[in-house]
Amino acid sequence: MRVLLTGGAGYIGSHTALCLLEAGYDVVALDNLSNASPEALKRVEELTGKKAPLIVGDCTNEKDVTAVFEQYKIDAVIHFAGLKAVGESVAKPLDYYQNNLDATMVLCRVMPRYNCDVLVFSSSATVYGTNQEMPLREDFPTGCTNPYGWTKWISERILTDVAHADPTRSFVLLRYFNPIGAHESGRIGEDPSGIPNNLMPYICQVASGKLQQLGVFGNDYPTRDGTGERDYIHVMDLAEGHLAALKYALENKGVEIFNLGTGVPYSVLDIVHAFEKANDLTIPYRITPRRPGDIATCYADPKRATEMLHWSAKRDLNTMCRDAWNWQKQNPKGYNE
Ligand code: NAD
Ligand code: UFG
């Protein structure tokens, strides 16, 4: 059984590649390397002792996608490829709509030509928009606050309509909450370019001395300590969630949506203190104004995934903080050593 991982050289894709190889699947990655290094999959090969071939190509290009299906017999696709920076999507909406939507549509067109019906899609908790009621359930209303979010929302819509039109398709849409951490070996991890936008990579770079101080974006939210709360999930738990989703899609037709989160909210200050405790370090921080577009609280109801995929997140916050730092410490320049 061979699985095509679009965006397979990226953060979540490389960890999922490792899990799939360890579970006995073959993988092939299609990635344009716009936000990744080929080194990630080399290290996956090193860790697993198995092949993780990388085809450098673009998912929005029908020829590139077709070439992969011509070269390999593909049984299922996990579609990670996409641009993901919220702020950049506000500045460059057309780049985001073109890249993220074309990639989804090209796959939907090419797959049936090769009798490949199974697709797992990387969606995001961002599609829940400004919902106030927590925890978030898959049947809650959706809507977005930025172009990146809308690309996920519209991709979900496209995949749902395609699955309804063609009953041979099996699509699983996964709404990720906040993936952090790294494989326990510290050989693969998150390698953001430039100054990180997200909390955990920022904390790691403060810990390493690359950045001076963390800015905590607001302490006047209606939360326990006033800072924003999120549902952080270890990237290896998330990767294992893909394995469960893939198994489900191989056995069931139609389209289903699942949250992948832990169901436990932690505040920004909880994360700072857990990181300090797990790694015996001090993280200098100061309170700064709120970041525009941020919401107070966002966490999952993970019940549906537990019941239908027989999956739940296992790793605790201490492990997430330990593994994030272990990766950063061993790879201060990411994959560009
Ligand atoms: P990432 O940037 O590390 O991985 C995405 C990969 O896709 C990169 O390797 C990039 O080079 C590749 N790519 C982008 N456009 C491409 C194209 N047109 N053709 C081929 N390759 C292309 O990001 P990630 O954190 O691993 O995220 C994977 C997916 O999960 C993305 O779709 C992202 O939007 C989604 N997601 C991520 C998060 C998160 O917090 N990391 C949360 C929710 C959803
Ligand atoms: N935060 C800080 N300082 C920082 C960075 C973040 O205080 O330097 C705070 C934010 O205000 C927020 C929390 O830390 O309260 C988490 O912020 P992240 O940027 O790490 O994550 P977000 O929840 O804003 O967004 C992430 C991804 C989105 C995705 C969303 C839901 O970046 O793409 O999770 O999955 F849509």
Explain the overall architecture.
The protein has 337 residues and is of the alpha/beta class. The chain has helices spanning 11-22, 39-48, 62-71, 86-91, 93-113, 147-165, 199-207, 235-251, 268-279, 303-309, 317-330, and strands at 2-6, 26-31, 54-56, 76-79, 118-124, 170-176, 178-180, 214-217, 229-230, 232-234, 254-260, 266-267, 285-288, 297-298. The strands form four sheets. A seven-stranded parallel beta sheet has the order 3-2-1-4-5-6-11, with helices on both faces. It has a three-stranded mixed beta sheet with strand order 12-9-14. It is globular, with a radius of gyration of 19 Å. 51% of the residues are buried. It binds nicotinamide-adenine-dinucleotide and uridine-5'-diphosphate-4-deoxy-4-fluoro-alpha-D-galactose (UFG). Residues 84, 86, 124-126, 176-178, 197-199, 202, 214-217, 228, 230, 268, 291, 294 line the site of uridine-5'-diphosphate-4-deoxy-4-fluoro-alpha-D-galactose (UFG).
The gist of it:
By secondary structure, the chain is of the alpha/beta class.
